């Protein structure tokens, strides 16, 4: 005499609901029924359920198992694909753990790549400058972003920087020109010019293209800095 659905589920270490789901999705053939109308499962059903359960435990989806068919052939190709996916996942998780270690060790912020955040941790950027750097991290190639962050190591709260951060929008012409000259003479600016002799070079290898990077930077700067500050930045580059 065969097993009932509940007995099959118990033997396979699963649930009635799971057995019924296997039927619904076509993974498990319907058994014969007894005279009283109840299902009667045999050894092939138990073996099939155990195979499905084992493959799902390994990580195959029910769709992948369905693609294998009802045979008992060794699913080598599917398992090799799964192994490759798991290897990629493990590599990604290891990278995440390494980054988390840096963030936790240095109490680094989470809005920038860990290595970049570490480089600028001593820069003492203003909220506006920091927001600008976060946006750049989305626009620049990793290599260019690293070069940019390296120049920020020498950035400090120079009196001219402090004045720029608090510059009112109605600052007069003389104040703007004087501030632009003093900021242009800062060592940080010399490092920036050395790293990027051509201002456009900052975006030359931008993943989404030079024009997209330029448009985004202009939009961000207009939002972050007032008109007087923008004027000072223009004078600095002139």
Automatic annotation (TrEMBL):
GO MF annotations, alphabetized:
DNA binding; DNA-binding transcription factor activity
Which PROSITE patterns does the UniProt entry name for this protein? HTH_MERR_2 (PS50937)
Q: State whether keyword Amino-acid biosynthesis applies.
A: no
Keywords for this protein? DNA-binding
Gene3D superfamilies documented for this protein: 1.10.1660.10
UniProt keyword rRNA-binding, yes or no:
no
HTH merR-type domain: from which residue to which, for each copy?
1-71
Q: What is this protein called?
A: DNA-binding transcriptional regulator, MerR family
């Amino acid at each position: 005499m065969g097993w009932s659905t509940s007995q099959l589920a118990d033997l396979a270490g699963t649930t009635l609901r799971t057995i019924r789901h296997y039927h619904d999705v076509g993974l498990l053939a319907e058994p014969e029924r007894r005279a009283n109308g109840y299902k009667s499962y045999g050894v092939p059903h138990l073996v099939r359920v155990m195979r499905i359960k084992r493959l799902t435990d390994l990580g195959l989806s029910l769709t992948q198992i369905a693609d294998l068919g009802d045979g008992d052939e060794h699913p080598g190709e599917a398992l090799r694909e799964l192994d490759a996916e798991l290897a990629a996942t493990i590599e990604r998780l290891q990278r995440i753990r390494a980054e988390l270690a840096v963030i936790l060790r240095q109490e680094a912020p989470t809005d920038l790549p860990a290595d970049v955040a570490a480089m600028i941790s001593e820069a003492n950027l203003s909220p506006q400058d920091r927001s600008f750097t976060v946006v750049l991290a989305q626009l620049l190639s990793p290599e260019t972003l690293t070069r940019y962050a390296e120049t920020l190591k020498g950035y400090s709260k120079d009196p001219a920087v402090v004045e720029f951060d608090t510059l009112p929008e109605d600052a007069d012409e003389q104040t703007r020109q004087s501030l632009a000259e003093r900021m242009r003479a800062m060592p940080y600016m010399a490092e920036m010019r050395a790293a990027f002799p051509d201002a456009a070079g900052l975006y030359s290898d931008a993943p989404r293209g030079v024009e997209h990077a330029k448009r985004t930077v202009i939009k961000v700067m207009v939002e972050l800095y007032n008109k007087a500050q923008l004027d000072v930045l223009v004078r600095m580059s002139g």
